[in-house]
Design brief:
Elements: H1 2-13, H2 18-28, H3 37-49, E1 53-58, E2 66-71, H4 73-84, H5 95-102, H6 108-138, H7 146-179
Antiparallel strand pairs: 1-2
Helix pairs in contact: 1-3, 1-4, 2-3, 6-7
């Protein structure tokens, strides 16, 4: 259902083809809500069937016809109702933490290697999010009102905060393993809480 609302949100800005929507997704919300081309086309068809979006076929002489979708009044009403709704708390499933949970079965150096590989992935992800900010500041975002841009970039800020917190935890965890904290007793009972600077 969230993909439907994300698509309605973009259609509220203007008409798009499925191909154009995929490009918009990749340049804006992929860091927290990725969608592949087939999902987008399937959802556009559902929205059209429900009367939340309409579709026009635009004929082209030198290439295949384009299916252009736009939001309907019913779609706009549903979008605004959804934005105003208090979101449910979602259960988070994190496969990596299952690995960490059982990593005590491994030699410390092997566990550290897994953690370091994850830390490298997160550093690359942070770098990618910083690129999203740069591209957005220089690209299509400049055509949008500043208030909309502000709220768009709040989602990037959220991603950066979450990823930085994960990276901080990984780096500290690696040091705790290297210090052999588990040798002195059950570190689980009183884990250190490192305050973020600033």
């Amino acid at each position: 259902m969230h993909l439907e609302h994300a698509i309605l949100g973009f259609l509220n800005y203007g008409p798009f083809t499925g191909y154009e929507l995929k490009r918009v997704f990749d340049r804006s919300i992929r860091h927290f809500w990725p969608a592949d081309q087939s999902q987008i086309y399937k959802t556009l068809s559902k929205l059209s069937d429900k009367g939340l979006a309409s579709m026009d076929i635009v004929h082209q002489d030198d290439r295949p016809s384009r299916k252009v979708y736009q939001i309907t009044d019913a779609g706009r009403t549903q979008l605004m109702e959804w934005i105003r709704r208090t979101p449910e708390v979602e259960v988070v499933r994190e496969p990596f933490l299952i690995q960490v949970f059982f990593a005590g079965l491994l030699p410390d150096e092997e566990a550290i290697q897994i953690l370091e590989e994850k830390a490298s992935e997160i550093r690359a992800y942070i770098e990618n999010l910083n690129e999203v900010t740069k591209v957005g500041a220089q690209g299509d975002g400049q055509k949008a009102p500043k208030k909309l841009q502000f709220y768009w970039f709040l989602t990037v800020d959220h991603g950066l905060w979450m990823m930085q917190a994960s990276l901080d935890w990984l780096e500290e965890t690696i040091e705790r393993i290297r210090r052999g904290e588990y040798v002195d007793g059950p570190a689980v009972l009183d884990p250190p809480r490192r305050r973020r600077d600033g």
